[in-house]
Amino acid sequence: MKKAVILTSGGLDSTTVLAIAKSRGFKIYALTFDYGQRHKRELSNAKKVAKYFKVAEHKILKIDLRCFGGSALTDNIKVPRKKNLKSKKIPSTYVPARNTIFLSYALAWAEVLKSHDIFIGVNAVDYSGYPDCRKEYLKAYQKMADLATKEGIEGKPIKIHSPLINHSKAEIIKKGMKLGVDYSITHSCYNPTANGLACGKCDSCRLRKKGFGEIGLKDPIKYVV
Amino acid sequence: MKKAVILTSGGLDSTTVLAIAKSRGFKIYALTFDYGQRHKRELSNAKKVAKYFKVAEHKILKIDLRCFGGSALTDNIKVPRKKNLKSKKIPSTYVPARNTIFLSYALAWAEVLKSHDIFIGVNAVDYSGYPDCRKEYLKAYQKMADLATKEGIEGKPIKIHSPLINHSKAEIIKKGMKLGVDYSITHSCYNPTANGLACGKCDSCRLRKKGFGEIGLKDPIKYVV
Fold first, then answer.
1. Residue B140 pLDDT > 90, yes or no?
2. What one-character DSSP code corresponds to residue B26?
3. Residue B185 within any structural domain of the chain
4. Number of domains in chain B
5. Which of A184, B85, B117, B174 fits a 20 to 30 Å CA distance from A56?
6. Which domain holds residue B101?
7. What is the CA radius of gyration of chain B?
């Protein structure tokens, strides 16, 4: 069985991607980051997701992005509530170089596992405008990765799959439902309450609710509003 | 004063690069990784280097590459002693995706600091044949970085400088001496003794000794052999 490293946040997108990789016959190595995020509660969801899909291994790496700060998710900056979802401006929830760091760890793990497949749940349709969620970024990352690794220069490149890149949230949810994803164990909110309820107002909540709404379904998680 | 993030290992190359950045008028932000390396003693040298050059800030990040292993520097694999230095084969001291991970953290810090300059001490002449020390790798990393960051897509790319890429060890040492580097506070050995002496036999020691030898100087650090 071929191995794949899946970046797993416990959120809607990465869980769907995990289900896709599984449906393609990969043995799953899930990689999650405890990076000092405000919404640390996503870690317990990542654990639930890993368990639900019976992954071969789940690593939760503790890395400190709070030591740099510079984002509403890792610093004392308020999470915005009213961003126009169509705006092209990069919001304050953008975490500098986050996906680049995450993918680099995935690359290291894949190389050691002799896996040639990494899956990441970025999408460039219903998203917050982060630079590191775009197709051109991933293409450039792939080129760099091919030159960065022993496997790459020996002609066995590690492929970075982003099967959701062109999908809307609604399409992602439909796809996941078909593959048996239980979205009640996922979590997307950037600013949950102390007891873990989703705020319903941050970009991430609004995009998620919009996605479920568009296909006439009720999101199975609980919201404050 | 412009700020620059310098990847600082406490070794000969990165110390020379720090001196170069300083000579170009940058305010120095030194970044060091406690990544589970066998030669952890380089961390105390990185601190000495940061102090010697009176850097504006020195961060030592604890990241766990030992959790992946796969290298003689981070796993229970013996450090090789007799590699032919001209061999093109990638040695077991190669750490999967190490420079990619290090540069990605530097990118994050630079973006938060509003710095547009990162310095890394890789060189592709007297080196161990690591894929992530080559010019083509750095070029691809730069392209990816330009697309990965807010600063990059807003037209203020973060430049990755590798001023030693075409230099031999001897040339690097000569350059550093001119800039006032005290090489006695640096450390290069992959396999030091418990009391911190350099082994004299690993690739890194041999390349270093060869460099000093070529310019008729004695390396100021102590070796077992």
1. yes
2. P
3. no
4. 1
5. A184
6. 3-168
7. 17
